[in-house]
Amino acid sequence: MYYIRLFIIICFSLIFDGLYAQGGFTRPNDWKKYRKEVTFQAGISEFLGDLGGLNKIGTDFSPVDLEFTLTRPAISLGYRYKLAKNFNIHSSFNYLLVAGDDKLTKEKFRSNRNLNFKSNIFELAVRAEVAFFTSQVGHRYGIKKTLKRRQKGKSNEFILFAGVGGFWYNPKGKNPATGQWEKLYPMHTEGQGLPGGPKQYKRISISIPVGIAWRMTLNKLWCVGLEYSYRKTFTDYIDDVSTTYYPDKVLFEDTYGTKALAFSDPNLGNIPYATAPNGDGTGAQRGDKEKDSYMSLQFTVGRFFPPKRRKTKLRSKF
Length: 318
Hints:
By secondary structure, the protein is mainly beta. It has 4 helices and 10 strands, in the order H-E-E-E-H-E-E-E-E-E-E-H-H-E. The chain has helices spanning 2-18, 108-113, 249-256, 258-264, and strands at 36-48, 72-84, 87-101, 116-144, 146-169, 172-174, 181-183, 204-217, 222-233, 293-304. A hairpin with a 2-residue loop joins strand 2 and strand 3.
């Protein structure tokens, strides 16, 4: 919630500043030439969840807890439509790969837990954008019967956005014996479906993307830019980790098998009884109930589709 409040404060600050800013188009209706745009984006993704993190107790999934060695690729294909000069609607299909690994932290409890995951994320999202412009205007000269000055300019567009999306994910864990990545969902690693265990989670969830973007218009057809997007989600299972270890490991193994138990609890044994049931018979803590989030930083290439020019019909004088 802290980051959402900070984002809202920044939005309002830029909106009030933008009321006095000069537009980036040299004529009032120039923005209509750039109304339709297809975007392609490529860059990196990061995950904030239960696994990995810095060499200390987690900080409620703050960006300072990012594990940069687990940076993975992200690509997007989108369509932007300008409803007004300073307001856009943008829809996109996004692919991200996210990952986490307790082996990368020296924090003793998470390191001993020894869990890992990776997951593909396929996301469809739509968002509203507020845009602000600055101009870089130069001049050029051409000779056509008379010397004529013509204007040539580039515009920088700064965008704040927020929206909603739906995404599908499918966490996998690495089998230490074979080195193969195996699907964790069917292994019910926290005892989903067993007496006293949680319900099985869904692999489709909602995301709330918020972020900031910059782009520069090169000409009437092309632009380039950079975008950062943070996604708040409503699931805690992107990494297959959320609540507690199932306390009855015998029942767990009898129901789901030895391999499922190994993926559920591969602890290193460095902290005795760390994954054993609590004194009251409940399961030991396996994860944090804070919802997962993920983010991307991407380079953007956009292609405009300007309106076709209408042909002027010559009227006969007779």
